[in-house]
Amino acid sequence: MADIMTNQVTGARTTTMDFKTYGPAVALLLLCVIGFMLNPAFLSEGNITNLLTRSAFIGIIAVGATFVITAGGIDLSVGSMAAVIAGVMIIVMNNSIDTFGTGATTVLIGCGFSILLGLGAGWINGMLTTKGKIEAFIVTLGTMGIFRSLVTYFADGGTLSLNHDVRGTYRPVYYDSILGLPFPVWVFIAVSVAGWILLNRTTFGRYCTAIGSNEAVAKYSAIKVDRIKTWTYVLQGLCVAMATIIYVPRLGSASSSTGVLWELEAIAAVIIGGTVLKGGYGRIGGTIIGALILTTIGNILNFTDVISNYLNGTMQGLIIIVAVLLQRSDWSRRASPKN
């Protein structure tokens, strides 16, 4: 009887793990089949390239969000953070033209400011959460409003536009390809590989998982909880900055509408990928697939009139709710005693 119970428990755990591991990939495959059935052009080279490029922005941000959520935190400010970083980048580059011209130096200065701003914004979120002892939800909700209002102020309620000649220099960062893949996709791949190694092969990743599982136990285990949690927000800020760097040359402008709902998409990608919302378990590979799923859904909506593409946000919200419900039911089954 004991052996049977052990096998049942082991089988349940194996099924759960398989679902978490392969469920998102199966969902993405089904979406691709549906997209092709609705319109064969879905699998065209141009559309796949566009889909991967659009996935890169949210995917890079979602990699950072995976660390924050795995450690038991949340960041609602990433979309507004991207907007203010983009606005400051444009202001800095436009003001650098008189001194450095319209070449690569000006672009590099703007990118440098982007990285510094991302690290600084992430550090502020982390310090307010850990040292200020304020719930991450409240902190990032507040900074979300601050960042959004700042970019609106910088643009005087309008739009900040990058100098035309500078944009010509900067344009290849978004539109050029290497070995057939757009540059943003290569950045996404590099960030994903680095994120996977950091989460699964380093002490930092193990500490994030331990803190998310049980913060009190992590403290008793001599883990510097506040430091690790702060670094997850700094890492999130860095990912937002990198995503912004490859996003700005796409439109060459920033406004109060830049990055709207990016936080929803980033969190959705993380949760869809199997990372547990309350922390303690994270999957970079799942996050990558989650980002692709969200972009694919939006892409399919553009190919069909059955559901308006204006309802893309509705679909994303429903996906988050369903994913969390599945997680809760999964944890309930694992916690319930076996007969």
Layout of strands and helices, then pairs:
Layout: H1 2-38, H2 45-70, H3 78-100, H4 104-130, H5 136-154, E1 159-161, H6 164-170, H7 172-175, E2 177-178, E3 181-182, H8 183-200, H9 203-213, H10 215-220, H11 225-251, E4 253-255, H12 262-272, H13 284-303, H14 312-335
Question: What this model shows, in words?
Answer:
There is one protein chain. This protein has one domain (23-328): ABC transporter involved in vitamin B12 uptake, BtuC, CATH 1.10.3470. 77% of the residues lie in helices and 3% in strands. By secondary structure, it is mainly α. A hairpin with a 2-residue loop joins strand 2 (177-178) and strand 3 (181-182). The protein is globular and about 55 Å long. It is built from 14 helices and four strands. 43% of the residues are buried. The chain has helices at 2-38, 45-70, 78-100, 104-130, 136-154, 164-170, 172-175, 183-200, 203-213, 215-220, 225-251, 262-272, 284-303, 312-335, and strands spanning 159-161, 177-178, 181-182, 253-255. The longest helix is centred in the N-terminal third of the chain and has 37 residues, at 2-38. A two-stranded antiparallel ribbon has the order 1-4.
In short:
This protein is mainly alpha-helical and 339 residues long. It has one domain (23-328): ABC transporter involved in vitamin B12 uptake, BtuC (Orthogonal Bundle). The protein contains 14 helices and four strands.
